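new request in #modeling-help
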Amino acid sequence: MNKPVIAFFPEASFGSALNCVGIAQQLQRQGAVPVFLCHQGFTGVFDEYGFKEYQLPASSKAASQRTEESWQAFITAHLEHFNQDPLAQLETYVRPTWEAIVDTAIQAEKGLETLIRRIKPDAIVLDNVIMFPAIANAGVPWIRVVSCAETEIPDPNVPPYLSGMAADDPGRAGFEAAYLKATGHAHRRYNAFRGRRGLPPLPPGEFLETSPHLNLLLAPEAVRHQRQHPLPEDLFVFLEGCVREEARFDPPPLPVNEGPIIYLSFGSLGAIDTDLIGRMIEVFASFPARFYVNVGGFLESYQSVPNNVYLGSWFPQPSTVAQADLFIHHGGNNSYCEALYFGVPSLVMPYCWDGHDNGLRAAQTGTGIHMQRDSWTPQQLRDAMTKLLEDKSLHQRMSRISRFMKAANGAAKAADSILRTLSQT
Amino acid sequence: MVRTRSNTRQNHLKLARQIVEVALERGLGCGDHLPETTLSEACGVSRTPIRSALKLLESNDIVQRREEGGYFLNLAPEEIGIKGISQLDEMEGSLAARILSDRAERRITDVQSVSALVRRYNVPRSAVLNALKILSSDGVVAQLPGRAWAFQPLLDTPNALAESLSFRLALEPQAITAPGFEMDSQKAGLLRQQMEDFLKRSDGSMSSVAFLHLDCAFHSLIAESSGNRFICGALLAHQRLRLTTQKDHSIPDFRLRQSLEEHLDILDSLERMQHQLAADQMVLHLRRSQIRKPQAVNRGLLPLARKGMA
């Protein structure tokens, strides 16, 4: 029998891209041939892990030339919105982001259809927040990966997506109404596009249906919600995280090389906020720990780095988190799951999207502390770090979660489920 | 002759760090024997400098010499990596390396006065001047009119890394094709052995620091074999800069392996005297290394590629 070709199509974010790498590594070990369909600009990322890549054709030369300008405009426009609460962000951040996502889906469609026809995959794994009709119409099973927070699949007992609020929050109905209003225009455009591509419309607020073949969710048991309508087990598989194999990180020795290791990463987008990271580094200077800080592409923005702090533009995160005693992050689901997987407490400072949901969830489940980005004092930051480092019962709880998640082997579970789905069709 | 003594000491210090890394990579523990012959093969140098480096380690209690013969590790395995290397950092003679590493890690600004460095490191003025001379001989710092010293660009940012690769892409193939290329076969053999040993390691145990050492050793060998003395000088200085200041911990194991296999292919071609083919393979190797992760990504926006991305 020929080896099945599994095409992965992660969205253009490191979280989902690297989550897919973890599943693809396992599928490869089990005899499948994983390949990646990737957005322009991501070329080489999957190749470095040994996977064949197919880049989506650029929509136009002008579009690719605009990338840098778009980013500059994005940074200028949105940096101040990062400090807003989730409700205020619906208008300032969520609305334009959904418009851009819909644009991406429309622009990618033709190229994606051509690529799929050329690759002839046996299955497609979609780790995204929107359906690309070319995938639903490909005539092969497609698997949805929910690498965002569990809130992406709605339920009355699950907090509203991107709200950062509890499921029973009295403001829930107001947030849901505001969400539908903010996403309304993009949603209508998207449904019209779906119609042109032969797909039925989706209910308001939804941009991606669940797969009739298989759905994989990262959400670990320790932070999962009790759903009013449990998801059918034959179609929904919880992976308990899904951590890729990554290069080994050897923490570079620091001039002051003592104390616990604290890793800070707000992701490539969060690294844009150099003011926030700069203020935090000032606090780190007098805190008895070693800090490894991901500053993305903005290393040049920092001077006079303290002797107990090391700045890097990229860290092999799984190996780095595994060695850390505390992980300060933005609540990105991949980061949060990696912290849980390695039993490391989280200090979550969200700035957008499901980071808000995970920030609250970390506090609710006692797996971390949720902190506002813009309203902390140096003493509050020191106290939060001290509490997370010294709380013995928290460490015992985190160790139990870590043991359970490691034993579950999410990547292997995902690969098994995908191959089983394939054999049943 | 101060500089010569300092440079020799620097070399022993580098070797001592390399020995600690070899011990760490091979999973050695407290009390384990460190045979000179094995270290000599692993580090690609004769036993005499290995002995000097072991003496340096002994003076810092990282190893101990026993009557029954040879040196033995004096630290628990988990302490070797961080404690061992940081102890070495504090050794006399490593001031130049400390200054360079502090600059690469943005602890000090790119223009420094001797007095500021004296205050920061709490060492005599002569020691700072000596360290600056060592750095200046490698082209890392230059004296400005007056008393200040300025650092040259280092390999400390993604953009600098991209520029470094472009620079090497322009010169390294030329280093091979310039008339008079001649490689030390013994050095090449030792390097080949080290790369093959590295390739035998399992995924997840390939240290990126150890890889950087091997990578710089390979590209330095290419540089010093070149028949063009100017290309040789420029590339050797650049490799020294890479070794001390390059910050890149982002290479997945697959690419590390692929990269070492490309080195071995280049060595094969050079040993067959197929210089043009080796130069072409070098172009391919460096182009592959040029591909970097995008700088920033967000839903709905095209990822922002790094400057120099192929």
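bot summary: Chain B touches chain A through 52 residues (CB under 8 Å).
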